[in-house]
Amino acid sequence: MTSNEDMTTEQSPDPITQAITALTAAARRTRVRGAGTEHAQVEPVDFAEIACHVLTTVAANVGGVEALLAGRPGSWEADYVRQIVHSTAGTEPGDLLRWRTEPVRLVLDVEDTFYDFGLTQMYDEERADAITRESDETLTEDQAAEAAAITEAIDTLWEQDKAAYLTAYTAAVRAALTEHGVTCDVEVVELVRGETETWDYLSSQLHEVARARTPLPMTGEAPDWSAGTPAEALRRAGLTYTARAQETLR
Which of 18, 37, 75, 153 sits at a 20 to 30 Å CA gap from 225? Predict the structure, then answer.
C-alpha cells in the first residue's frame, strides 16, 4: 500500500526534467534577422545567450552565485558557472539583483532593530517609571489618572513607532532596489516572535542598506549614531517616550 506522502512524492514533477524540456524547446526556436527587409533570413536563436540568461537569473533568485553553487563550490563545473554569472551580470551584489524575477522577501524583526538602536531599552525604562508613578499612593485622583494616561500613551506610541518603521523600511528597500534598476516585487514582513529567518547574501546586503537609511518615526531622519546610540540622540532632542506621551495629552 502506498502512503499519501509517497504518492505526493511520486507525482511531483521533476524540476530538472522540466528545465531540460524548456531549454530544449528554447534551443529549437528561430529568430529572423533583418526582419522587414529584402535580406531577412531565419536563423537559430543564440542559445549561449539564453543559457547565460537562465543561469544568471536563477543565481539572482536564490540569493547569489555562491548560494547557487553551495552544493559543491570548488568543482570545475562551479567555476565555469561562476564565470558565466559574473560575466553576464557583473560582480557586485546590486548587479545581480537586476536579473531577479522572484520577489525580494525580507523578514524584519522590528523590536530587535529597535533594541540595537537603544529604543527598546528606552521604552522599557520609561514605561516602568510610568507604572511606578501610576501606583504612587500619594497621588491625587487627578494625578493618578494623568499617570495612567501617560502609561497608555507610551504603549500606543511604541506600537505606532513599530508600524511606522516597518512601512518606512519597506519604502527604503524599494528605493534601494530602484537605484540599482531592480524591478522585481518586494515583500517585507515582520518576524513572528519565536521564529527564525535565514538570510541569503543579497537579502543581507539589501537589509543593511535599508536599515541605515530608514528614517525613525520620531524624527523622520535616519538613525543618528554620531554621538552614541540613536536613543541617546533622541534623549538629547527631548524626544523620549515620556515627553512625547505628555505632548499627546496636552
Answer: 153
